[in-house]
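Supplementary Methods, section 5.1.

A reviewer requested that the exact input to the structure prediction be made available. We therefore reproduce it here, unchanged from the version used in the analyses.
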Amino acid sequence: MQRISRLGLGLRLGLRNFSTSSIIRNATTFGEVANNNSTKSNNKKNSIKQVKDIVTIKNILHCNFKKNNTFLTLTRVEMDKNFQETHSKLSFNEQVLYYLSLPQKISISQSTGYLGFRKAQRGEYEASFQLSSNIFKIINDKKLIKNDKLEIVIKGFGKGRSAFFDALKGKEGNEIRKFITKLSDLTPISFGGNRAPSRRRI
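The structure derived from this sequence is encoded token-by-token as follows.
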């Protein structure tokens, strides 16, 4: 009897050692394979959708005229044609906000100090005139204006303001004037508020 019981235990242990339950547990099922294929296909679709098709709509020349300096910056307004497809989860209002405030990228930015003018010379007429003519030349040589649309935005008063317009109306701006579609003045006008400081008298 003892021998028979021992043989029975040995058979049980042998069956446990040769059982395939652990292999079956570790094996991949059909459902897991199907889910992996579906996730891969979704990732491929998302990667295809996220391709951007960026187009330049217009160019804006920002002119900031200060008392002691002049800053000219040319930017290009870009729009993604596939924005609605790549951002389909956004609400209607969020999509409208994107088109109302399209991103701008700087093409070129210079000031009078870039041409070698220092201290008080930066606020003079000649410095702004040379800066304007230099910007116009770079824009024409490198063909930075795309889509043949240029918008000029002016801000501030100073000697550089008249110098910029003189350069634009002269021979320096012959190749630039044909691209201008809009001219706007964003100079803030003070209304009310605190009393302004008295002017300096020499």
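The chain has a mean pLDDT of 81. These observations are discussed further in the main text.
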